[in-house]
Amino acid sequence: MARTKRIDDDTLMTKLTQTFRDYGYEGASLNILSKATGLQKASLYHRFPGGKEEMALEVLNRAGNWVGENIVAPLTTDISPEKKIKIMSKKLDEFYTGGNNSCLLNMLASPEMVKGPFTSHIKEAFEVWIKTLSNVLVESGLSRKESRKRAENAIAMLQGSLVMSRGMNDPKLFKSFLKNLPNMLLDNK
Amino acid sequence: MARTKRIDDDTLMTKLTQTFRDYGYEGASLNILSKATGLQKASLYHRFPGGKEEMALEVLNRAGNWVGENIVAPLTTDISPEKKIKIMSKKLDEFYTGGNNSCLLNMLASPEMVKGPFTSHIKEAFEVWIKTLSNVLVESGLSRKESRKRAENAIAMLQGSLVMSRGMNDPKLFKSFLKNLPNMLLDNK
DNA sequence: GTCTATAGTAAGATAGAC
DNA sequence: GTCTATCTTACTATAGAC
Known about the structure:
The structure is a homodimer. The first copy, chain A, has helices spanning about 10-25, 30-35, 40-45, 50-75, 80-95, 105, 120-140, 145-165, 170-185. Chain A is an all-alpha fold.
């Protein structure tokens, strides 16, 4: 034995993701990651030869894929903009577990001066997200400029509501954001 | 000599603040703090016997005082709500150096599960901020409920725009937020 | 008040047995 | 594939000279 995995890849990635979200990159020590996954450090290195950096990169990629499949993809189908926004809200609620989870794009962001290994991934994630959402709003009849602005504001509000929910230890601001999201995006001005 | 300070208290605190903003609590090692301030580690311990935790706590307190004097105080004077918001915008621009600095309330926030030494300070800072800003909006003629909501949204948008400015390495979202802030707060709906 | 030197601990990472 | 044991480095923190 011991040739069989104590924890399957998907569950492992979920645990790692949770830990990086809770502790950030620096705060998530290998000891903490080990306890969170039930694997010893050496076992983690066996699965991620690149160590913590590789773990965080794969976590970031997996989150990107999840967002692509669950949030971006529905936004590019043939249903109405209203329905798209509704689906997105539901998926965001799931993704951030009702405001109790921080966003990796915030928790893994590096100091500006020292460009870290995640900088480009995070920047691209934000840009893709803004563009995709913006396209939906154009489709709903808004101008390109107004659509871009609303998309940026919505994502900023999402990030801010998560920061405040964490800081105040109360997810109500995130929930309130989600509730207002459709209006924020689609209301005629 | 060496009985005279290499760096005065205020400049020292400014450097420490900058470092915690850039690196976060875990990321700001004593080596980094030492280089940033020009003081050796032992000298830092002489000034802050409680070590890094005391440094961060004092940084947080000082930032709270600055906000109290420069942002909260003007909000409670006798000038018009419009002028108050204008002053606040200007001071926020200064405080966050045009969107190039992160917010300590985000960078020092601890993981929810492990209540850190800053949790209560951060929570209180958000609450005071929301209440003070909300009162200004009540004064401008909005209902208590609407005022509270707008204040929360404005601060969330501020936090989010900072997160995104850092993540995208471009302060334009913060600048855009600042520009729209008066409308966001005072527009009749 | 600041420094060099160093203790003690925890970090990231690897070797080799099973 | 997982483990214990270990290495090396970096970290927080302290001692003691000037």
